[in-house]
Write the structure tokens for this entry.
Amino acid sequence: MDTADVGTTVLALTSTQRGLWWGAIIGGFAIVLVVAALLTILVLLVRVIDRRVVSIKGHLEAAAANTADTALIERTAEQVEAVLAEGLEHHLFLGRVLAKVRS
């Protein structure tokens, strides 16, 4: 036995095995590309959602500021009713006085 051959093992693949290995390598690379593309799309969509959330938050804060004084609406309505009632009394009074002045 030759000393050069000791510890050396030659592995040989059949053409079918080689084809399967290349198929697995190419398939794995394709899967990595698809996953990278999907993660990129996910990151882009999350950024869009974040921007829209900030925009919606601003709109909601503006709406809250616009409606902060709605508690005063009922009180204002009562005062307007009182002014209208007094105006009606003046109108009726002036109508009676004017009728007496004309006659």
